[in-house]
From TrEMBL:
SUPFAM superfamilies attached to this UniProt entry: Rhodanese/Cell cycle control phosphatase
Protein name: Sulfurtransferase
Lineage, opening ranks: Bacteria, Pseudomonadati, Pseudomonadota, Acidithiobacillia, Acidithiobacillales
EC number: 2.8.1.-
Pfam families found in the cross-reference section: Rhodanese
Residues of the Rhodanese domain: 30-128
InterPro entries hit by this protein: Rhodanese-like_dom, Rhodanese-like_dom_sf
UniProt keyword Zinc present: no
């Protein structure tokens, strides 16, 4: 039987850890080992993103996270031993991305539950 998007998301969520908005906001204030990654498309990132976020679109995640790739992301590719928190609009693409980073050897990866939609609904800061 073919898998649906819901199947992929359910499987991903069973393999990853999620963080809520209040916890992430606290981590942004108190942790210096945190890498916050927005996996949305470029236009969405430009329209608004979380403070301190770097932009790594999901479609380029594996390449940009791989230190052996000639055009890797200078921050993400060196973050295997740091706390990495991923987000998208609703937390689905970032959940799939969290699984990918774990498979690539990243040690402490989290997904922002509900994504930027919940972050915004909770009136947390957004950079525009």
């Amino acid at each position: 039987m073919a898998k649906s998007l819901a199947d992929f998301i359910r499987s991903a969520r069973s393999q990853i850890r999620e963080v809520d908005c209040d916890t992430l906001e606290d981590w942004l204030r108190t942790r210096d080992d945190l890498v916050l990654v927005d996996v949305r498309e470029a236009h969405a990132f430009v329209e608004g993103h979380l403070p301190e976020a770097i932009h790594v679109p999901r479609g380029y995640l594996e390449a940009l996270a791989d230190p052996d790739y000639g055009h890797c992301h200078p921050v993400l590719s060196r973050a295997r031993d740091q706390v990495v928190v991923l987000y998208c609009d609703s937390g689905t693409r970032s959940a799939l991305s969290a699984v990918t980073l774990q498979e690539m050897g990243f040690n402490e990866v989290y997904n922002l539950g509900g994504g930027i939609n919940v972050w915004d609904a909770e009136d947390k800061p957004i950079v525009t």
